[in-house]
Amino acid sequence: MPLNWNYQESFAGRHIGPDEHELKQMLSALGVTSLDAFIEQAVPPAIRSKEPLKLGPPRGEHELLAQLEAIAAKNQVFRSFIGMGYHDTHVPNVILRNIFQNPGWYTQYTPYQAEISQGRLEALLNFQTLIMDLTGLEVANASLLDEGTAAAEAMAMALHQKGDGAGGAFFVSDTCHPQTVDVVRTRAAPLGVEVVVGDHRTVDLGSKKFVGALVQYPATDGVVHDYRAFADKVHAAGGLFVVAADLLSLTLLTPPGEFGADVAVGSAQRFGVPMGYGGPHAAYFATKNAYTRVMPGRIIGVSEDAQGRRALRMALQTREQHIRREKATSNICTAQVLLAIMAGMYAVYHGPKGLKSIAERVHGLTVVLARGLAKLGLKPKHEQYFDTLRVELTPPQVRAVLAAAEAARMNFRRIDEKTVGVSLDETTRPADVEAILAAFATGAGKSAAPSLEEAGASVETPVAPELRRTSAYLTHSVFNSYHSEAEMLRYIKRLEAKDLSLTHSMIPLGSCTMKLNATAEMIPVTWPQFGKLHPFAPTSQAAGYKVIFEQLEQMLTQVTGFAGCSLQPNAGSQGEYAGLLVIRAYHQSRGQGHRDVCLIPSSAHGTNPASAVMAGYKVVVTRCDEDGNIDLGDLRAKADEHKDRLAALMVTYPSTHGVFEEEIKEICSIIHERGGQVYMDGANLNAQVGLTSPGSIGADVCHINLHKTFCIPHGGGGPGMGPICVASHLVKFLPGHPVIKTGGSEAISAISAAPWGSASILLISWMYMTMMGGEGLTQATKLAILNANYIAERLQPHYPVLYRGKRGKVAHECIVDLRPLKKTSGVEVEDVAKRLMDFGFHAPTVSFPVSGTLMIEPTESESKAELDRFCDALIAIRQEIRDIEEGRMPKDNNVLKNAPHTSRVITAPEWNRPYSREQAVFPAAWVRENKFWPAVGRLNNVLGDRKLVCSCPPVEDYMTPDPKAAVA
Questions:
Q1: Fewest CB atoms within 10 A around its CB: which of 66, 141, 659, 705?
Q2: Distance CA 442, CA 718 (A)
Q3: Pairing relation of β-strands 701-703 and 724-726?
Q4: Omega of the bond leading into 844 within 30 degrees of 0 (cis)
């Protein structure tokens, strides 16, 4: 018997669902003899790549993890006392293991199907309640991307609320974090807003039309200001008062809502989320009820289901940018849901007493440190502080202190050549304070530092009584019930059990690409060599990250066919925005700054027009033809009409209708011939990798949803990453950063708060791409297209497939048309979506891009067996609809209209429905073997828009609407 001593397991074989036998069956069903022959039919020959991807051979899981350990060892994990909005923290192990490392929490892109998302919705409502309580404001959203972008969103909200449509000015305190100032400036410029940075104590708010003002609390150098008089001054000038506040400090300091803030923003990172060299971290945004309908991001509200039981849902969805399109005031799409859940659970685990105790320890050690420094003759500048001290020295002393700190493997903040900042955190212990004092003693030329016993006698807070918090917070039962690990574990698992995830079945959300998030990809994210690095640590300490960044950038440019890459944008929406600003900078550099028209097809993702507006462009919509393709005649006419002002075209490829448009190269030429640039939305890059590329097609820039094409898990709406790749003439404009140098020689200002966005999750995509290799990635693309066409073929006799390419094939997703069913049976697309829950499936994307349709994307990760189960479910549902059409079931009381069916409904003593209990909950054989029970029945969507409140009060509080509490 011959032995293969050179055998190596293939990760691609684990990632790609169909095996060789299933592959042959699917090809046979499609009437082709080979996968290559099928791809020749599906992908237009004119755009096919001539060369294979040059990414090197695939690597095995264990081999690559060992290599990554060696790369991780290049990072030097110093104790971080830099602050600036990033702090070391302890991730409670029960949260680390059961949420952060648990694929049961890596769920669908967004919890649009609330009945099977009740777990994360409750966890997000806990987060919102945490933010509302600590900030003292009336409503909060379910997270934003980072503190800098949250502050920029507040600036935009102030403009739209207080501006007159002709721009205005926005004041930013010079004691805000520098990265926040830069991101606000980035957002303000295209909107015509002048950012004035200065001292809040002396600024003349009557000198300009100020729409608002932003301050830091505590300030970036640690001082705790009393902002009450300034709040009055901002309001008297007609502006919104925005406070960027540290969450942990708010357990001890007066909350912003109690001293006049209209908006509070900040980061929840220090609530149990690793620094990760910059992210991902959940930002927060809280405001007054009066601004609920214009605040950015998603809001979770309380509703009830068809049986009158309490249930949660995303509220006020018509506010969202993808619905408002060019009328949007924000382009936010992804959020940081998984991290918001972790932060909320951190608060649940510790409770109000635990959080206050942590804050008191941090604050107390800071007081001890301040006393010790004073005994060294280095009294900190500010009298009032929470966890950060500003120490002013001579330049030689600064150099000596920093050198001593480095020798002791500590990082302090060098504010300027005469000033050092030191920030303490949850992980700081007395031994750390001793080490800090020793470094300062060396810098001050002292032989020894004072002892902690001497410095720490009778410690009292230096904060004035009027700035101390007196109001209660986190009084709701959820924050006071689960402090033992056993109880916390059971609470987490109860919520997890309410959510359908990839651990149960495929999630065929079109355009959202819910592919496998392999375990090997996720493991390194929690390694301390990556998780404990501060984003502003000296780059010499991040040599391991440098290797990852360089290799990932090289792989992404190879995949896209471009010359340069920026990893900074930390969401797809941020990538769109960054790409458009790069195009804007390019035109300005050539004396073409007047180019401000952006053409966008009517089929485009809603974030496209929203991003264009945020980037300062005027949106002109172009038509699509009856086959769903861009109408070339209309495109050419509008390009001609606006040729002198044409800046860009935003195009998705394959199209949002799920087909490869044959004329894409001509489309790009039309724009280029008239002086514009082509921005390609990378949402559907999953169908391009290895077969074609944005660069070869003719685009100039694209963003890449790493959370779609390259496997970062969605977690119910984030985290995500949206790097951009650009052609050679745009490389010099790639985003820079005010703290750590990044970007091109003529870099635009910062897009995100951290230099490389959510750096830690870039490891996921690096692992995936390296394990797959060029050949594996190309095979994955082919199988993604094959799986979609197999589904389209199976469903075509039962539901018409709305769009196909010229050769009769779809791309990596297909749209099935349910609109005729409403006329024949009264069944709507929502009914089918809810009925799929009874079969154990999450619905495809509902009514996008065409109302009344389902957009199905199976991805390459799903086996033929799973695809068949899904198709069998939809075919069985079609038969149930036929029963209605042919009169065997009533139109208003049938298995679809009553779906989904909960265990409570099915076990009720009375059953007065015209179908059996068995048909309701066990409609297929496989369901009986592995039943997923929806936690609640169909939701009352209208009520959910009225109850943006905590999850904790009793059900009775929600039964009688209070007119006074209704959202304006």
A1: 66
A2: 45
A3: antiparallel
A4: no
How confident is the model at residue 953, as a pLDDT?
Answer: 37
pLDDT digits (tens, 9 = 90+) for 436-458: 999 999 988 888 888 888 877 88
Q: 245 pairs with which residues across the strands?
A: 217
- Could you give the CA distance from residue 11 to residue 518 in angstroms, rounded to a whole number? 10
The whole-angstrom separation of Cα 585 and Cα 828 is 46
* Residue 965 confidence (pLDDT): 34
Look at residue 59 in the predicted model and tell me its pLDDT: 95
Longest CA span, the chain: 95
Long-range contacts of 400-409 (CB under 8 A, 24+ apart): 400/442, 400/443, 400/445, 401/439, 401/440, 401/442, 401/443, 401/444, 402/443, 403/443, 404/438, 404/439, 404/440, 404/442, 404/443, 405/436, 405/439, 406/78, 408/435, 408/438, 408/439, 409/76, 409/78, 409/79
Dihedral sign for Cα atoms in the order 134, 135, 136, 141: negative
| Among the listed residues 413, 505, 547, the one whose alpha carbon sits nearest the alpha carbon of residue 83 | 413
Tokens 């997703």: give the residue: 813
The candidate with the shortest Cα–Cα distance to 829, out of 818, 843, 845, is 818
- Sheet holding 413-416: strands in order across? 388-392, 419-423, 413-416
Residues 748/736, Cβ–Cβ less than 8 Å = yes
Helix, coil or strand: residue 138: coil
Look-up of token digits 């949250």: 150
The 3-state DSSP class for residue 172 equals strand
Cα 165 to Cα 156, 168, 169, 427, 931: the distances in Å are: 12, 8, 12, 47, 54
Nearest to 569 by CA among 154, 279, 267, 195: 279
Both tokens of 705, joined, read 């949803």
C-alpha span between 295 and 335 (Å, rounded): 14
Close Cβ partners of 341 (under 8 Å, ≥ 6 residues apart): 99, 105, 120, 123, 124, 127, 715, 716
d(C-alpha 388, C-alpha 82), whole Å: 9
Q: Is 953 in a helix, a strand, or coil?
A: coil
Question: Dihedral sign, CA of 574, 577, 579, 581?
Answer: negative
Count CB atoms within 10 A of the CB of residue 10: 18
**pLDDT at site 956:** 32
User: Residue 906: is it exposed, middle or buried by C-beta count within 10 angstroms (0-12/13-18/19+)?
Assistant: middle
Instruction: Note the pLDDT tens digit of each residue in 543-574.
Output: 999 999 999 999 999 999 999 999 999 999 99
Contact 682, 705 (CB under 8 A): yes
Kindly give the parts of the chain with pLDDT less than 70: 165-166, 316-328, 942-968
- Identity of the amino acid at 623: R
Angle 864-885/762-795 helices, nearest 10 degrees?
Answer: 40
Q: What is the CA radius of gyration of the chain?
A: 28
Task: Work out the end-to-end distance of the chain between its first and last CA atoms, rounded to an integer number of angstroms.
Answer: 78
* Residue bearing tokens 């264009």: 612
Angle at 197 between CA 614 and CA 743, to 5 degrees: 55
Contact residues for 34 (Cβ-Cβ < 8 A; gap 6+) = 27
**Strands lying side by side in the sheet with 853-856:** 814-817, 853-856, 845-846
pLDDT at 606: 75
